[in-house]
Amino acid sequence: MLFQKVERREAGMDDNGDPGKIFTLTVVPVGGSDSSLATLNTAIQGVRNYGGKLIVLHVVDRDLVSEMARLENKGRNEIEQTLEKNGLRYLRFAEELADEAGVEVETVLRFGVAYEEIVKIADERDASLIIIGRMGPKGPRRILVKNVTERVIENANCPVLVAIQEEKTWKR
To answer: What domains lie within the chain, and their CATH numbers?
Structure first.
């Protein structure tokens, strides 16, 4: 009787049994919410522990720009500039946190539909993981509108980790 050798591979190990080689490039989208910061901290901790590189992405969502322009009775350009400025601030803060943790990081600001841009950058850079927070519409609106997290899970071509944890604030 022939027996096939079965090798056990521990979670977090690559084919050679070395830790930290499975996820070489992680994408994490950020916004200004407490949940986003908690997700960023999870991503930084994961990359610090297992190696690789982190891409922190902020998307100025065109649908949000339109909605805010309508509600605030302001021009799209003014709203877009404000959201871009905020996004750059979030990215600078994310870069500081990653640098403090000794994690290699790249920050990216994009304009478009949030879930599409998250999936697109993961595909363009051949990301091995997306870490995203669990946030979205609540109550009856949730039935009508899929949130960004759900759409990323449905469309991503790499694993997606949904980070659920205690929320923290953006304040230092």
So the answer is: 25-163 (3.40.50.620)
φ, ψ dihedrals at 26, nearest 5°:
-115, 130
> What is the rounded distance in angstroms from the CA atom of residue 103 to the CA atom of residue 54?
7
Sequential DSSP letters for 88-153: HHHHHHHHHHHHHHT--EEEEEEEE-HHHHHHHHHHHTT-SEEEEE-----THHHHHS--HHHHHH
CB 90 within 8 A of CB 107: no
- Would you state the structure tokens that stand for residue 100, as one six-digit string? 């403090």
With a threshold of 0.70, does the pTM exceed it? yes
Bridge-partner residues for 162, per DSSP?
Answer: 132
Q: What's the pLDDT tens digit per position in 93-114?
A: 999 999 999 999 999 999 999 9
| Residue 8: predicted pLDDT | 41
